[in-house]
Amino acid sequence: MIKCHLSRIMGEKKLRIADVARAIGVHRNAITLLYEETATRVDMDTIDKLCAFLDCGIQDLFEYIADSDSKK
Length: 72
What we know:
- The protein has one domain: 434 Repressor (Amino-terminal Domain) (Orthogonal Bundle), CATH 1.10.260.
- Helices cover 53% and strands 8% of the residues.
- The protein has helices at 6-12, 17-24, 28-35, 44-54, 58-61; strands spanning 2-4, 62-64.
- It has a two-stranded antiparallel ribbon with strand order 1-2.
- The model has no long low-confidence stretch (mean pLDDT 94).
């Protein structure tokens, strides 16, 4: 599973979804889906803009957590 840390990062920086969406020029719904960890697809350009705006790396934004079901 992929865990998105956008809500934590935005909370630390006291940012609102609307402010981030407006600042990076991405539809608010795209940010909301990432924030709530309900996104199934993410545009690479959106990730690039988020990392630049939040001054973080992709590894700060996303984390891979192995599913216990997939272990053999």
